[in-house]
Design a protein that fits this description.
The complex is a heterodimer of chains A (334) and B (530).
Chain A: E1 8-11, E2 14-17, E3 22-24, E4 32-34, E5 49-52, H1 54-64, E6 70-72, E7 78-81, E8 85-91, E9 99-105, E10 108-112, E11 134-139, H2 151-164, E12 170-173, H3 179-189, E13 196-198, H4 203-211, E14 219-221, E15 234-237, E16 254-258, H5 265-270, E17 275-277, H6 285-295, E18 299-305, H7 307-316, E19 321-323
Chain B: H1 2-12, H2 17-30, H3 35-43, H4 54-64, H5 67-77, H6 80-87, H7 100-109, H8 115-123, H9 128-138, H10 148-159, H11 163-170, H12 178-184, E1 203-204, E2 206-207, E3 218-224, E4 227-234, E5 237-242, E6 263-276, H13 286-290, H14 300-305, E7 308-318, E8 321-322, H15 328-338, E9 347-349, E10 352-353, H16 358-367, E11 373-380, E12 388-389, E13 394-398, E14 402-413, E15 422-430, E16 440-446, H17 452-464, E17 466-470, E18 473-476, E19 481-486, E20 488-491, E21 499-502, E22 505-510, H18 521-525
Parallel strand pairs in B: 1-12, 2-13, 7-9
Antiparallel strand pairs in B: 3-10, 3-11, 4-5, 4-6, 6-7, 7-8, 11-13, 14-15, 14-18, 14-19, 15-16, 17-18, 19-22, 20-21
The chains are: A alpha/beta (334), B alpha+beta (530).
Chain lengths: 334, 530
Amino acid sequence: MAASFSWIRPEPHGIHIVPADCWVDPSRAVDKALVTHGHADHARGGHDQTVATPETLAIMKLRYATSAGATPVAYGETIRLPGGVDATYVPAGHVLGSAQILLEHAGERVVVTGDYKRRADPTCAPFEVTKCDIFITEATFGLPLFTHPPIEEEMAKLLERLAAHPDRCVLVGAYALGKAQRVIAELRRAGHRDPIYLHGAMEKMCRLYEEHGVDLGELRLVADYSKDDMRGAVVVCPPSALNDRWSRRLPDPITAMASGWMRVRQRARQRNVELPLVISDHADWGELTRTIEEVAAQENWITHGREDALLRWCQLHQRRARALALAGYEDEDD
Amino acid sequence: MEEFAALVDALVYTRSRNEKLRLIAEYLRATPDPDRGWALAALSDGLDFPAVKSSTIRNLMQERVDPVLWTLSRDFVGDTAETASLLWPAPADPPSPPSVSETVELLSAMTRKSVVTELPRLLDRLDASGRYALLKLATGGMRIGVSSRLAKTAFAQAFDVSVDEVEEYWHGLQPPYAELFDWAAHGKPPPDTENLPTFRPFMLAHPLEDTVVDLADYAAEWKWDGIRVQLVRAGGETRLYSRSGDDISATFPELLDVLPFNAVLDGELLVRGSVQGGEEGGAASFNALQQRLGRKTVSKKMLTEYPAFVRLYDALIVEGDDLRERAWTARRSRLEALMARLPDSHFDISSVVEARDFEHLAQIREGSRDDAIEGLMLKRKDSPYIAGRRVGYWYKWKRDPLLVDCVLMYAQRGSGKRSSFYSDYTFGCWDGDPDQGADLLPVGKAYSGFTDEELKKLDRHVRQNTVNRFGPVRETDRSLVFEVAFDSVHESRRHKSGLAMRFPRIRRIRWDKPPHEADRIEALRLLIRD
């Protein structure tokens, strides 16, 4: 069976579309790259040609200050690659601009998910189930213990803590692309109208989201305000700044982190987090397994994360699966 | 149970010691008896429910979750109780949490047979946080960054009493410590401990490091390589306690009828042999003592082959006379005078090391090649006997460790704070010339000596250089050298190399050193001294 799919090959540094000589999310510079989304472990700079959604290209331009050889593809649009391969970009629900890539060749359909989630997210288009023959899925939270709670519960925890300490601030560590904007948008949805303060590293990405029509309410830069201004406020920073000297300028911050890993107590402790917020932009165990069932592929290829457990699940449910040893994907601070 | 679970969660996520004290104290004030007593027991010494073990939980889970998925999850989380609390199937009914007392009652009533049905029933009454708190409480040892001492300090803070007094009464009492709460919270007279053979907390030493002391003010003693014990006789009974206050009387029955008067004595437990302090009728190495440790029953053969005795350091109480507030010199003379009344067969006294000055003492320490001497103790001559570690009174001045360069061979994930990091390392030395094809043989295992930053790098190294996986263990490509520090090395049949190290720890990570330049087994063998 797999032999008939010889046109698509997993290699250590990416997925190779052989007849087109293109790569999906390659971890090193190539001639032509199809990129699923803007996170650094998927979108590297330096490719001669990059095919991605306009939003992802804008994010890459912001990060790598280059847009040479960029080919935008809108959601639902199909482009023809050399060698008779069609590529269609389908929303993945992960971050702004994130896409699954449907590849079709000689009547065979392959979907590469990149990273994805199934939960509603006010900052990006929702995941669409796409039937296929080979489903190449992520498995970041591929262990049955990962069940992301409803985001409303996590927001309530945050706002409750904020209200209980009007003299302090809640400092939320959140991945700069995607998570930060989602947390802000969800705070707005929960009725929080106060200005939200940003670490300088967050500013440009938030502006980019706003330019793409995501309303984030009033945002202020920490650097422009005094300690007293920020009492009782939410401050958002990259996870790396949580325990950094930078946070000394804040009014006695309560350290929070928005990440799927916060489900495990010791993970929160390792990061000195006092208020863990279990918020992830990846599919949890239930979403991963449900999606495998819904796309009903003949074969599932598991790219990165807890691939052992998802493989086992496939085995228990009589679904063909294999783990791909791709280099360079990391457990991001999600 | 909800309040207790909330306390446990808050403690898990709190870094500040003061904040932890405040949280526990607040809970102890707000919670009724006897719930708070049970909670205090859980947070300090832990509770013991013989029917509920880690393996019980594992078995329950494996009936509900695929065993492979369970193992992978447990391996990732690094904690059985937490993994189970997360993976427990959500019950159909809404939670109806029991009180802490009811929980303790139910857990105590469980047998190895009934636990299989009763524990799930209890788990079904709780949410994920409650399940975590329950399983932690049920299996003893919360491991949430709260020491027994911290819990007692919080108790003292809650009711504005002295923590030293709390320590004093503590060991004569049983959970839920009704008498302790009666005294501290309800103003009743303190518990009577004078006629009970209870444990008195040890006085401990700080590492000397760069401090230099004046020998006019400090006395020096050898630091013997056994285990620190307290021998207590009161109310017609003798008991032996370990450093942590565990009653180890049953393991050393020969010491229970040799103390002819009421006393609380502090000393080093050793077994007879010819290594340690030969001139005073010596003791065997720690290796020999190890044969006797941790046994619930002792055979005649053990008693004859490894007879135990106590080398005395200090006298806390003698015949009703509490010496703890007196100076070390006064306690020492009292102890010396006592020796005539104690049988030589089971007691000797740790001699004072005489030196002209600090520099001379340093020479003596350097020159002590006796493998079973760990170093020196320096005790301020006017120091009272105070529970715990107090700066400036007692110092330990350990011998410089032995060093050897080893190659990382296997790594395993840690637990607790290090869960999901590869933090336990097995390393080896070359069994010959590596350039002639000699192989590495494992010589030890270490999981300390590196910073959190270094741990992250090591974890990455392991993940990126894995050549084989055996369950939770990864075999690496043998490309990284550790400088390993250890206190001594012994013959051992447990390892293929025939050697076992004592207290191995990573001293330096030699990212720069090529593995073939690491040490050979024969170099390590030369360091054996018993």
